[in-house]
Amino acid sequence: MTAILSIHRAGPLMSVQDSGRYGYRSRGVSTSGAVDRDAHAIANALVGNEPGAAAIEFALIGGSFSADRDVLIAVTGGNCPVEISGKPVHTWESHLLPAGETLTIGALRGAVWGYLAISGGIAIPEVLGSRSTHLRTGLGGLDGKTLATGDNLPLGEAGKLKPKTLGVPYLRSHAPICIVPGPQDDYFDEEAWKTFLRQPYRTTASRDRMAMVLDGPALKAFKGHDIVSDATVVGSIQVPGSGKPIVLSADGQTTGGYPKIATIASFDLARLAQLPSGQEFMFRAISADMAEELAIHAEDRLAAVIGGLKKRKG
Amino acid sequence: MSLLASSGTGISYPRIIRCGDRAIGIEFSDQVSETANLQVLTLDASLAADPIDGVLETIPTYRSLTVIYDPKTVRGAKLGEALLQRAAQGEIERSAGRLLEFPVFYGGEHQADLEDLARLKDMTVADVIALHASAEYRVYMIGFAPGFAYLGGLPEILHTPRLAVPRQRIEAGAIGIGGRQSSINSVPGPSGWRFLGRTLFKLFDPMRPEPFLLKAGDRILFRGIDAAEAAELDRQVSAGTAKLKEIAE
Predict the structure, then answer these.
(1) How many whole angstroms separate alpha carbon A260 and alpha carbon A268?
(2) What is the CATH code of the structural domain delimited by A177-302?
(3) Signal peptide position in this chain (chain B) (predicted)?
(4) Out of A114, A161, B50, B236, which residue is the most buried by the measure of CB atoms under 10 Å away?
């Protein structure tokens, strides 16, 4: 019989996400998947799943859960209080959740997106090759919706339940957020570029899985704020007429009509997404060549963290 | 005609645009033009027939092709050169896509703009419908939402700016006008476009063997139908027996 994970209390923006839905951007289908890909992959690896398995993503606040068989669980993304049967356990480690016992996950500190992976993964049907939820179009996930109190999720078959912990630390810097200029960098004059790179910007509460609106000095596109719509990618920085940059995220639309001053370097997407609302940061422009080097380096680093997981004692 | 062309803006096309460290674009124009769109689709077809290592996805739009790649397999700089080279080789394929007939129920409860549009243009509702249904439209691209079709070919008289305040929910199948563009809505959602009617065919259904009804390059004729035919078609669509009519040329 299929094991079930029951949600007794759900945070406000909780959804099923895997590593994303690929191959359909030309048909208007967003990639979706975890906003913080690394944290999602590490959570899965900690419970013995494939890095791309379907897990639960939550924003700011977790919830409470139980399973009807023994499972391993891991919470990553940031740090938050986690309790099993009322006893605190650490994030970024896997723990046994005995059948029928309660897992509670509190509020993230200093981060926005959290992940709960369960051994066996969430075994809902795939839609267009992925279990990820695209909330705006109601695609994938559990009926295309955010998870709610009372929902039950089927779990896949799990291997041996061996709790693990990180052997190689996974750290994130506080350096400026790297961007690659373009595709419409030439819509902005030297003055606008100076502003963009020398003034701090702030994350705001206007953020979800589709996009985040930034606050800071307005950017004027001297060639205008309308282009003939072209493709966007995850990390595109659109500049609408308000001059306030909008960074597209995992669920972002696939095309758009605003000029895009730059693209967030892929290895810094999660670092930006995890900045708490209201936090100031700076942008730093790097070449596409260097961004590729650093992207490959970041992939290798993630592989080292996952490869370096070790048995947790006690 | 060669794929190499230049415009009068001082920028020569095609040109490479960078979209971060996992995507790169080749741009054929900064305007809506059928030639640029054909260049895009020709290059896209060439990449499908003879793929470049490391290319994961391609996204054809009005006037550019964006390519998603794995930097571990191919570097953007090299890929950009390859795309320019490929674009310079081919002849534009004129063989346009399928010609499809879409039955449209003009008016109806969700399409409040038909009468406003007639007033705005100082025409009768019947004239607006006749004019809208007289043109051949071309699918320039699929994007924004799953299966959403951006169409070109809207008669100039019908060009109308978007609404100042978007509506919260427009149904799937709604036929819209936004500026110079026309569209067929594929999933329900908010929109600032003006809507004239709806087609009963589903542009997107993830449970169908072929989830997407249209692709870029397809051409469309709209045919007005009455409430009785719409009701019958609704039944056929629900039963899965409705078939879009492809017009032989």
Answers:
(1) 17
(2) 2.40.100.10
(3) none
(4) A114
